[in-house]
Amino acid sequence: MNQYLYQLRPTAPDMLVRGVTQREQDVVEAHFAHLQGLLESGVLLTAGRTTTEDANTFGIVVLEAETEEAARQLMETDPAIVHGLMRAQLFPYRTALWSGKGPSD
Q1: CB-based burial of residue 14 (10 Å sphere; 0-12 exposed, 13-18 middle, 19+ buried)?
Q2: How many whole angstroms separate alpha carbon 76 and alpha carbon 88?
Q3: Rounded to an integer, what is the distance from CA 30 to the centroid of its chain?
């Protein structure tokens, strides 16, 4: 199985400072549900975002897929992309080291 990473950037970075509208909140919740579904199906390896709240903010999604086309389809069906809240770029990816330890709260 091949690994891919897609980088997400908000189309309106100011929403992180001004706060989100109800529509944006709904899309973010759908985006998170989409990622949870990928996790439950064994496709998602990790996902997260920087904690910055400026134009440099970005998120990443690392997943496994048979082909780049399949990975692109998963990326393009992400509600954040579908609804224009974020833009994404797909990269072939390979994890070199993995701690096996989950994130600390």
Answers
A1: exposed
A2: 8
A3: 12
86: three-class secondary structure by DSSP: strand
Look up the CATH number of the domain holding residue 63.
3.30.70.1060
The pLDDT tens digits along the chain (105 residues) read 999 999 999 998 788 788 889 999 999 999 999 999 999 999 999 999 999 888 889 999 999 999 999 999 999 999 999 999 999 999 999 999 988 877 766
Under the phi-then-psi rule, with left for phi > 0, alpha for psi from -120 to 50, and beta for the rest, what region is 88? beta
Which 3 state secondary structure label does DSSP give 36? helix
**Domains: count for the chain:** 1
Roughly how many angstroms between the first and final C-alpha of the chain, as a whole number? 30
Task: Decide if 7 is inside a domain.
Answer: yes
pTM here is 0.90
